Structures
1.
Amino acid sequence: MSLVLFNDLTRKKEPFNPIKPGHVSFYSCGPTVYDYFHVGNARPFIVFDVLRRWLEHEGYHVTFVQNFTDIDDKMIHRAHKENITVQELAERFITEYQKDADALGIRRPDVAPRATEHMPEIIRTVEKIIANGHAYVSEGDVYFDIKSWPKYGSLCKQNLEDMEAGARVDPTEKKRDPLDFALWKAEKPGEPSWDSPWGKGRPGWHIECSAMSSKYLGDNIDIHSGGVDLMFPHHENEAAQSEAASGSGKPFVNYWLHNGFLLIDNEKMSKSLGNFLTARAAIEKYPPLALRFFMLSAHYRSPLNFTPESLEQAAAGVSRLRNCRSDLDFAAKTRKDNNSTFDVKEYQAQLQELDKKFTEAMNDDFNTAAAMGILFDVVYLINTTLKENESLPEEFFTLSKNALKDYDDILGVIGDDEAENENAEIEKLIQERTEARKAKDFARSDAIRDELKARGIVLEDTPQGTKWKKELA
Ligand code: AMP
Ligand code: ZN
């Protein structure tokens, strides 16, 4: 069976056929960088990272774009509260996002565009929508004209009358229809603004994704993903805008994928409800890969309830996987014997059988829950083989280690001991340098900086603390 995906456009599982054979264009809505992201936000970042890895494993060349929303009401309020600029706030939380995402094994996107760096593209998209007769200017704002777009509601499967009945009508609004949404908002005092043909202002939230996805992936893309709360209005609006701007008649997106909610006490985890735990706090308390393990232990579309026990169980799961790998390493040093009578062919056939099942699970709408179950069957097979055999041939160790590595390249739940140890060591040295600087022991702090530099680690001191990055060779 080849890959099938549940497409929210048709509410059906469909065989995956990319627009350009061998290539996948994939856009995922990214974080609004006004704060640390929470465990609920981590769910799409983790599950779609796995889909991206799976597509690559299946031989596709994937272009993965995930934006940073660095201008919106939340950004403006938070920057005011902290008495810093919106840009400073964005810089800070993009850095923090990357730290947490790296710790969670989320691979960096091929392109991570920021809305504020794409004003010309955003303005051009709005101009095209106006020119094609689907938006209008009203006192410096620009609105999408819902009535001009009969397809509106086709993703969220609602009709206009029902949506209008549910919409709040505010007589002070400058819109023709309560469902019309802003593409461009006229400047308000004290808010960042950009020049535009309609006067100074800033973009609406939805238009940035339309403009940036089209810039990097074109007007018709293979996959677009996000949490289920984004289906309406964000994705419905993105689709209307992008198709109204391109005027090509082609759909904006061929496969719409949405992850289910992460719940806490059976309620959606969210900033506004205040029932959230930041990913940072979770990974300070539990091993980061336990959070990843936990997310992948459910199907991405099912709701998933977060409890301390579930994280503890996930941490135990990660340990079991890592122990299997270290037991293998240890046995390879102590029990390798090329004269052993062990039936390698039979063992290889068992691994292949499991591999087939793993592929079937991943191809079935990337069912990571089932795939993780199969990874544990592999671990069970390795553990029992180790237990039952005093000596084992080299091929056993090579096959087993490669199997674990291949699965982990896709799921990323076992991790890399060496990289983790190195990161921990770097963080420890930076901490020591901060303390030396506080104590005015500059000889020591300079020595640490030089030592890290020799290892290709560059430090940058910022008001929020010391940042580090690895210099590319
Ligand atoms: P935001 O930064 O609020 O735009 O959210 C970033 C991503 O997290 C979006 O794809 C949201 O749909 C997703 N998201 C937010 N809360 C949850 C939740 N409780 N469970 C799953 N996904 C969520
Ligand atoms: Zn978006």
2.
Amino acid sequence: MTDQPDVPEFPAQRGNAYRDTWCGEISPDRVGGEARLAGWVNRRRDHGGLVFIDLRDRTGLVQLVFDPDDSGTAFALGHKLRPEDVISVAGPVVERSAETVNPEIPTGAFEIRVAEADLLSDAQTPPFEIEGRGASEVGEETRLRYRYLDLRRENMREALQLRAAIVRAMRTQLDGDGFVEIETPVLTRSTPEGARDFLVPSRLQQGSFYALPQSPQLFKQLLMVAGFERYYQIARCFRDEDLRADRQPDFTQLDIEMSFVEVEDVIAANERLMAHVLGVAGIEVDLPIPRISHDDAIARFGTDRPDLRFGMELTDLTDALRETEFRVFRGTIDGGGIVKGMNAGKRDLARSELDGLIADAQELGAKGLVWAFREGDGWRSPTAKFLTEAELASLNGALGAEEGDLLLIVADEPKVANQVLGTMRTRLAERWGDIPEGANAFCWIVDWPLLEWSEDEGRWTPLHHPFTAFEGEIDESDPGAIRARAYDLVWNGSEIGGGSIRISDSAQQEQVLTLLGIDAEEAEARFGFLLEALRFGAPPHGGIAYGIDRICALAAGTESIRDVIAFPKTASGGDPLTGAPAPVDERQLRELGVTVRRPPAQQ
Ligand code: ASP
């Protein structure tokens, strides 16, 4: 976690019956005066005839001393206080004796001698300890069930304050750059971002449904047609996907759109934005951010989200093996596949660990994995005997292998080989501690293909969304070759944002929809309003959307986006605190004209 960035000065507390200052504000100049404080009992210790309490509010901790000589009534209360009770106290601020100073907390040199104390609300024994940092040993289900207690922990408070600072920095920068913040509807029509919609039945038009937005994509394009030119929104988005680890069904985007722009303009504005926003979180972004073409990213890192904090790039070895008679490589190459490898550097691995790598590769979908250590001009590897000396030498050359380097090789269809090695590259770097502490690496992925062939659906599908503009003309005989005017921003191997220049011509938009297998009738029904708007003078426009949850998680240095969301859902899409999703009354269903077909198990 970084230090608290850019938090506006804490406002002074107007004195009232509860408090006249904050726990964290007790400082040398208060000594000799009185303070009135309010907050939660963080910890209580009984020492002989005295009771010590650490009082906690949003700003920190301060020690209270209850001494029967100061006030018998306060002492009696102090004696029975329990963790998480809510109290208000008043009394003189004094310096602690040198040997009792607590250097761990900013107020550790002072204490309040309690003269008056009020119990405002007592607390049941919490299901887990609040004090201290980290989620410790508490299961996440329990933390989420009692999220209001979990959020009392210092690290959670810091994470949400960091999030607030990041969002504030987004607004400051964009407002300064002349963007207008505009809200778009949450009850709307389906917009396609490739996921399933959450649907809301309409009571007034029974049988009809609103969709919750997967993104404000179409509305922001309409705002460009409307002439706003520069728009942004901190937008809640909803995607009903089978939850992969670390996805949320509702999440927050920073959504941006600009008119009369080309790729370069959007990238320039966004580099400034990101440098400012992440600067606030203490993260330096070197500008310009390097760009890698989509195809290069796949070739060198096996993924369109490359982590550039370490090396271990992939190398295509197919050419070095054109003539090979090794059955496994031969079969793959003849079948249109590739042989790809990476030099994993000097590693001292036991045979069982090498077997483990093979198992990893198979679990990721590869048929197998060849491992080898360079030894002299050849290899130490069970596979060495199947390759000629010349082949071993040229593989060593292609992989830049030095004596003792571990080489990992996969032969498969290009997609599988890239995916498997790309995933192993990051996994191994993490496992072997290759990623430098505190390093940050950003890159833009550019020159995306517009479309990819979906085996499942038997049609071309967009890599971004159907409104993405492309270079040149559409060649229907080779849709896979069309290049999108799209860009994604990747930070340490995570995609944090993506966008494109949009199609601003109605006829061209229809052409792309046709290419996607959406016929004129369906196009009219689903996107007629966009096609129509584009006929009323649409400026060239483009934009981007960022995943705020992901950005905040990376900035906070936490693994899980749930740690930067106040009330997140579990991996199965539930909220253990409120019990959502939950059945509703028969009456509500009747009003909506909805009948539930329960899964057989519940009938
Ligand atoms: N609407 C897109 C998304 O949600 C982002 C964009 O193209 O601006 O991914």
